[in-house]
Amino acid sequence: MIEKINLNNILFLDIETVPEEENFNSLDAEMQSLWDLKTQYQRKDDFTPEEFYDRAGIWAEFGKIICISVGYFTIKGDIRNFRVTSFFGEEKKILKDFSNLINNHFNQPQHLMCGHNSKEFDIPFIARRMIINQMAIPDKLNLFGKKPWEVPHLDTLELWKFGDYKHFTSLKLLTKILGVPSPKGDIDGSQVAHVYYVEKDIDRIITYCEKDTIAVAQIFLRLRREDLLIEEEIIHV
Questions:
Q1: CA–CA dist 35, 41 (Å, integer)
Q2: pTM over 0.70
Q3: How do strand 79-88 and strand 234-236 relate by DSSP bridges?
Q4: pLDDT by residue (tens digit) across 188-201?
C-alpha cells in the first residue's frame, strides 16, 4: 500500500528535546517531588532523582522541544528533490511555526506525517507541549475521536514491525541493515542536553535533527524499493 502514496503528500519529521530546566535544582520543590514519583520505576535504587534528571527530556511534562526538523519531496517529472528545514529557538515559537506549516501546507485529507517511532514519541510530545503552552493543536495532530485508519500518520518503526508489537528497532540499526547512509554525526540523543545547555551549540543539534529526518525519508524510500536520495537531491532551506 505504501507504494501508492504520493511522496509529495508526506511531511517527514524529527524532534530534539531536552530537560525543561538545565539541572534538577532549578526545579521548584513540588516539581522535584513529582519527578521523584514519575521516575521511581525507571530509577529503582540505581539513581537518585537528581542523578536521573538528565533524562527528563523524554517526558513532555518535564522536557521541552528545542528543534523540529521537517522534510518533504518535490517531484516534477523526473526531477526529484527533498527539501529540509528546521524550527528552533524559543519553544513556543518552534511550535507556532510548525503549526503554521501544517495548517497552511499539509492540512488536506491526503497529507500525512512520517517519523521513526513518531506515533509513540514525536507526535504525542509535540501535542502535549502545545497544550502546556496553551496553543491550539492542528487537526493533523489531534487524534481524539479518530479511528485507527483515520490517523494521518506514518511511522517507519511501525512499518518495520509488520504487526510485531514487541519489536523495537532503532533508526541507526534500521539505516544500517537497509543500506541507508548513517544519519548519525558527532553526537547522539544522550548528548543533546549537554550540547544545548553547556556547549550552547544549537547548530550541531539542528544538523543532527535534519540528518535523522533525511534518514526517515530514505528508509521510506527503501521500504518502497525506490532509489535512495543522493546529496544533490537534498536541499537545506
A1: 11
A2: yes
A3: parallel
A4: 888 999 999 999 99
